[in-house]
């Protein structure tokens, strides 16, 4: 049995703990999106059912991503000290409760509280990236992380397409819309509980086994902890970059269907389809960013990865500005696909850098950078809840902000001192 990180990514293989873990972690992350954003494509119905105002809808969008900030920090720490296998299992079981319980919401306040609870599921990303980083060798980490993250994020697009169909099927079975959206959320909650069992049963913390079986590994000296990490400008540059890319992604997942309904007069199902196309870009775009970063690194090192990330963010910002001023559906779709490509490539490029900033604290750094993505989503959410701004206005302001973050990242040197990846606690 191979107990070392893999040197290659064998996408069609399930043999060995490394590839088995790779496939289970992206599949789990994929299904988590059904719980995390399953309500988003149903919001036109929920808005009418609960009588929500634009500001209240905005608050629920913020709630869905704000709790994730704290959950990602906690999961990053738990992965370092408890291991990703137990951490993911716990997250899935705890997260399934508000997903299935949201059907009990009867007004704005109770719905908001359930959305807040559902937000913990977003921490699934940190475990996914951490676990993939552990299973693969340095030369392939960027690609492996990007493919796992991208295929998992694909769940955001599939959710926008599938949840309206589940809702329609329940209505077709004779239930009212009031009951149908509530029943629909039982589906992702049940899937999360199933994945909790599979993850605990069929994955390991490391290629060599679980943490509790590796006492010698836990004795390896770790880095200076959170104080050392928080003093590293590279961590905060990646934090801002992820706020600009993933923050926009989860914000768009939350508002896209409503934007297409309100701006272009689409039906809930049609709006969900086009919002889903945005998510479907993760099938290849995030992986493309990780592959590009690994290729650039061969010749230009970490500095090259940083420049690539800055360029991708700039192109994302420019594409978002085009989307903001789209005057018809065709222009909106074309510009959406443009900024989505660079946004998702930037996601992949970011986490091609994360494992190398301080390899013995990958969990902490993954959690901090991941939390940055959600903080970006929270701040963007305040723009979309404003009664004085249209959704187009909000997209425009965000586009300019992303361009500014791109400029900042360009001047950050990501080539600082790093430890050998083989010296990490989980190597």
UniProtKB/TrEMBL annotation:
The keyword Transmembrane applies. It is found in: Membrane. Residues 21-417 form the Major facilitator superfamily (MFS) profile domain. It is a multi-pass membrane protein. One of its GO terms (biological process) is nitrate assimilation. One of its GO terms (molecular function) is nitrate transmembrane transporter activity. PROSITE patterns: MFS. The chain crosses the membrane at residues 21-43, 55-75, 87-106, 112-130, 151-173, 179-200, 235-259, 271-288, 309-342, 362-383, 395-414. It holds the Pfam family MFS_1. Keywords: Membrane, Nitrate assimilation, Transmembrane, Transmembrane helix. It comes from the Bacteria. GO terms for cellular component: membrane. Belongs to the major facilitator superfamily. Nitrate/nitrite porter (TC 2.A.1.8) family. This is MFS transporter, NNP family, nitrate/nitrite transporter. It comes from Siphonobacter aquaeclarae.
């Amino acid at each position: 049995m191979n107990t070392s990180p893999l040197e290659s990514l064998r996408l069609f293989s399930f043999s060995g703990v490394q590839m088995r873990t790779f496939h289970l972690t992206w599949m789990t992350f994929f299904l988590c999106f059904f719980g995390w954003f399953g309500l988003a494509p149903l919001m036109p119905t929920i808005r009418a059912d609960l009588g929500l105002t634009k500001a209240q809808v905005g608050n629920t969008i913020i709630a869905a991503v704000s709790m994730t900030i704290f959950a990602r920090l906690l999961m990053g720490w738990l992965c370092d000290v408890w291991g990703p296998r137990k951490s993911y299992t716990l997250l899935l079981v705890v997260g399934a409760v508000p997903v299935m319980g949201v059907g009990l919401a009867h007004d704005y306040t109770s719905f908001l509280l359930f959305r807040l609870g559902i937000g913990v599921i977003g921490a699934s990303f940190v475990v996914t990236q951490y676990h993939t980083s552990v299973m693969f060798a340095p030369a392939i980490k960027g690609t492996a992380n990007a493919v796992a993250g991208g295929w998992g994020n694909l769940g955001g697009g599939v959710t926008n397409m599938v949840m309206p169909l589940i809702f329609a099927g329940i209505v077709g079975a004779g239930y009212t819309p009031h009951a149908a959206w509530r029943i629909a959320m039982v589906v992702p909650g049940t899937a999360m509980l199933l994945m909790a069992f599979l993850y605990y049963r069929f994955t390991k913390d490391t290629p060599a086994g679980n943490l509790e079986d590796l006492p010698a590994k836990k004795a390896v000296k770790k880095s200076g902890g959170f104080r050392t990490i928080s003093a590293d400008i590279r961590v905060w540059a990646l934090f801002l970059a992820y706020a600009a890319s993933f923050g926009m992604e989860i914000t768009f997942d939350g508002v896209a269907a409503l934007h297409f309904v309100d701006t272009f007069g689409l039906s809930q199902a049609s709006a969900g389809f086009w919002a889903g196309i945005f998510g479907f870009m993760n099938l290849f775009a995030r992986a493309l960013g990780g592959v590009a970063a690994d290729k650039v690194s061969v010749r230009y090192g970490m500095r090259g990865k940083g420049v690539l990330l800055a360029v991708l963010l700039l192109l994302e910002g420019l594409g978002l500005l085009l989307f903001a001023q789209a005057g018809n559906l065709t222009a909106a779709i074309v510009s959406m696909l443009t900024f989505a490509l660079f946004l998702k490539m930037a996601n992949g490029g970011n986490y091609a850098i994360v494992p190398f900033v301080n390899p013995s604290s990958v969990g902490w750094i993954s959690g901090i950078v991941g939390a940055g993505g959600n903080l970006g989503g929270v701040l963007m959410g305040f723009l979309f809840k404003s009664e004085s701004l249209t959704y187009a206005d909000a997209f425009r302001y965000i586009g300019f902000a992303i361009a500014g973050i791109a400029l900042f990242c360009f001047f950050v040197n990501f080539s600082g001192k790093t430890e050998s990846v083989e010296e990490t606690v989980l190597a």
